[in-house]
Amino acid sequence: MEKMFQIITSNAFLSAIFSTIAIILLGYVARKRNIVGPEAGKVLSDVVLAFALPALAFSAFMQNINPETFTTGLTVFVFGFVAYVILIILGESLFFRFKGDQQTTLSVLTTFGSTTFFGIPIINGFLGPLGALYANIFNIAYRVFLYSYGLVRMSGVKFEKKNFKQIFLNPIVLATFVGLLIWVFQKTMPQMTVTVPLYEGSKDMQEITVGILRIDKTLPWLYKPVDYLSKLASPLAWLAIGMTLGNISLGEALKDRVVWLYSGVKLVVVPAIFVVLMLVMKSVVSLDYPAFMAIIIMLATPPATVAVAYAIKYDKEAQLASNASLLGTVLSIVAIVFWIIVGAGLQAFF
């Protein structure tokens, strides 16, 4: 209990939570007071998805590899695919009483959260580069299933080869795979000796040997723009979320009992199931605290924007999906804080 209290009262914890909520509120107020126009949130989202998040995905892998992080990373990669199979089963079974399009939409929105846009910036702010690294590895499976199972389930058509472009040529996916390959093979690629500070901010220098593609060390001038863009991901994403919320009235969503039920399942029940599952897994596979928390935060995110877009495009309970997105986004802020506190209490198990 004392350990948990120390974590939740630490500057790192309070800074991450306060920054998230404060910047989202800033975006909300800016939109409500017409400081920015109705399209500002969408434009900002496009910038984040096209530039800042790919840079964050790539830069997360610019760190040394050791046997522990490699083994944990491999566990997270494999578990990502297992997790999404479990999520699909949960989505289909938890809403079995609903029928037709309503059941389909609730199932898909439960399976796919806004992990890239909403989750990873928070993870980066709270857990730092190691948490972001694990989050991006876990997200590989998310992309594969979102553009395959999610599309097929919502559209009702067969999966076609042309959709592979959406999966594998997405800037974030490309940056993730390039960064992942550099991280995994950095010790087997040609090596280069470079001079770097003894520690960040230090004037004392040391020589180290790194893989030639570790551009954060071998070509720091080339890496610097990527670093700048990666640091923009979190604040810009939070501003965009606030501006988007400022465009919509909560009234409609608050009246819908199904949306409240969905939010409870998505933000409380599903993460709780995975908390238990990962605590059990911990005894047989390599899973450290940053990996555990990164996965839980990603599971406690609101429905994915792409999944909501599917519902609108294919006329699968578009109003329900929109309301779920709105209420889920508001409640997920509270849910993520809750799960971070729960995670702090469970840190002793890791």
Largest sheet: 2 strands, antiparallel
Alpha carbon gap, first and last residue: 15 Å
**What is the CATH domain class?**
Mainly Alpha
**Regions with little confidence, pLDDT below 50 for 5+ residues:** none
Helix-strand sequence: HHHHHHHHEEHHHHHHH
Q: How much of the residues is beta strand, in percent? A: under 5%
Instruction: State the secondary-structure class.
Output: mainly alpha
**How many distinct beta strands?**
2
Net shape: globular
**Largest sheet, spatial ordering of strands:** 1-2
How many structural domains in the coordinates?
1
What does this structure look like?
The chain has helices at residues 2-8, 11-32, 40-59, 67-94, 100-111, 115-155, 164-168, 171-185, 215-218, 220-245, 250-255, 257-281, 289-299, 305-313, 318-346, and strands spanning 191-197, 205-211. It is mostly helical. The chain has a single domain (2-349), classed as Na+/H+ antiporter like fold (Up-down Bundle), CATH 1.20.1530. Strands 1-2 form a two-stranded antiparallel sheet. Helix 2 crosses helix 10 and helix 4 (67-94) packs antiparallel against helix 5 (100-111). The longest helix is centred in the middle third of the chain and has 41 residues, at 115-155. The chain is globular, with a radius of gyration of 20 Å. The model has no long low-confidence stretch (mean pLDDT 85). It is found in: Cell membrane.
